[in-house]
Inverse folding.
């Protein structure tokens, strides 16, 4: 603590008068110690305010560092239940799924990525994915639904495009609302469509859903998918580069191992898994193998990233054990990933409203504190929990924003085109 500003008020002489010097001495010998003591007492009292039980502690920590969830399927649930009719339901609740505002508030949810999702329909898209049919329309409808809900309930929600927006929304007591797009099949094979989605607010793109698409191979969900490109297609490589330039996070949930490894080797910006489990506990392609996890981190050959852990029973555990998934199961995934690649690389990606069953103790968005309590029991401290809750995601977002700012200075919009498309060949009118 410095007393200089008090003494250096405008208009007074630069060399303090004897009286001023005396006052300064009183300040440093009497006032400063009193203030320090008051500070210590304040901290002690405040410290006593921290609850002793794990759940109380979890709620206390989450008040200052609320959960930022990487994947909530609210928009597609509202499409399927209410046909996207905003007047037909009240977002404050009660709603039939895992999400509504009242439960989100109870669960200390500070923000989330609204999953913009339409089913991939590989059969209807044709052998070369050349018939995206109604997918782009349906995707736009899901964006429209999301931004209109955020607007309609603007006393509780704010549409966010940057990490700073997220911080500002939380400070204003709102649920920070980001748009994440679950599958490049929604691009209609077009980087121009990607750029338009960016302008509408989309800030992550999962390279695939459960089907292969024109850009990349998928891991499938329960059945494995036969590989088409051997990872990324040539256009998929251009897609990753263009996402880096635009500032859209490369999301590697749902993709095949080869797609993940190739994307990690070419991305110039941090990456995320918006909702994925570790394959260590359940050997299915949809989960992340150690080989891929080991590419995440700091240092040579590694990429900064955040693995936001999925709560879905059937990803977390093999089929015979899945019905018994509980809070401990999900904590196991978080700890396994954190032990392997560090607590700076984990987050929460519940998949709420996108799955039919959820673990005991994590039934819906009101239950996040149970998971934090379980980790407190296992020795996690406030700093690590705040990284898990949202700090790591914000770091990745900032990293992606910084790379984009740099790349935009010398890279132009990517004009790469799907080689199967001839409608954009030009030379159709000869003036
Ligand atoms: C939307 O929902 C409201 C309230 O249930 C209903 O009155 C209205 O008819 C619905 N609109 C359409 C187009 O279905
Ligand atoms: C989760 O289930 C396991 C065994 O099925 C049990 O040992 C553990 O205590 C449970 N955890 C919680 C938090 O209920």
């Amino acid at each position: 603590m410095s007393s200089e500003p008090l003494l250096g008020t405008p208009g007074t002489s630069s060399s303090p008068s004897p009286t001023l010097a005396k006052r300064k001495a009183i300040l440093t010998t009497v006032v400063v110690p009193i203030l320090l003591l008051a500070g210590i007492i304040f901290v002690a009292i405040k410290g006593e305010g921290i609850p002793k039980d794990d759940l109380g502690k979890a709620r206390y920590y989450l008040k200052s560092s609320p959960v930022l969830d990487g994947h909530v399927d609210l928009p597609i649930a509202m499409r399927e239940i209410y046909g996207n009719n905003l007047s037909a339901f009240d977002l404050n609740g009660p709603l039939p799924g895992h999400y509504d505002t009242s439960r989100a508030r109870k669960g200390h949810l500070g923000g989330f990525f609204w999953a913009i999702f339409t089913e991939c329909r590989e059969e209807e898209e044709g052998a070369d994915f050349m018939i995206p049919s109604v997918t782009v329309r349906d995707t736009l409808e899901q964006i429209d639904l999301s931004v209109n809900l955020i607007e309609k309930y603007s006393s509780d929600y704010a549409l966010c495009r940057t990490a700073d927006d997220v911080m500002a929304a939380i400070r204003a007591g709102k649920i920070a609302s980001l748009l994440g797009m679950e599958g490049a099949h929604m691009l209609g094979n077009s980087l121009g469509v990607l750029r338009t989605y960016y302008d509408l607010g989309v800030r992550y793109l999962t390279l695939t859903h459960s089907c292969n698409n024109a850009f990349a191979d998928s891991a499938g969900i329960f059945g494995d998918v036969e590989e088409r490109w051997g990872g990324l297609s040539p256009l998929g490589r251009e897609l990753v580069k263009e996402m880096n330039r635009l500032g859209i996070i490369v999301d590697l949930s749902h993709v095949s191992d080869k797609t993940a490894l190739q994307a990690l080797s070419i991305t110039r910006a941090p990456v995320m898994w918006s909702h994925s489990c570790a394959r260590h506990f359940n050997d299915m392609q949809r989960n992340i193998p150690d080989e891929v996890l080991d590419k995440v981190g700091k240092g040579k050959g590694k990429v900064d990233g955040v693995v936001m852990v999925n709560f879905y029973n059937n990803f977390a555990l093999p089929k015979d054990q899945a019905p018994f998934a509980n809070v401990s199961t999900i904590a196991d995934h978080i700890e396994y990933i954190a032990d392997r690649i560090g607590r700076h690389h984990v987050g929460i990606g519940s998949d709420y409203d996108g799955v039919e069953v959820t673990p005991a103790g994590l039934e819906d968005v009101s239950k996040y504190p149970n998971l934090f309590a379980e980790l407190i029991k296992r020795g996690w401290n406030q700093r690590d929990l705040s990284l898990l809750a949202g700090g790591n995601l914000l770091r990745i977002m900032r990293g992606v924003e910084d790379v984009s700012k740099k790349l935009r200075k010398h890279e132009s919009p990517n004009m790469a085109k799907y080689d199967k498309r001839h409608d954009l060949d030009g030379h159709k009118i000869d003036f």
User: Anything to note?
Assistant: Residues 85, 87-88 surround 2-acetamido-2-deoxy-beta-D-glucopyranose (ligand 1) (CB under 6 Å). Residues 18-48 form the longest helix (31 residues). The CA atoms of residues 116 and 181 lie 5 Å apart.
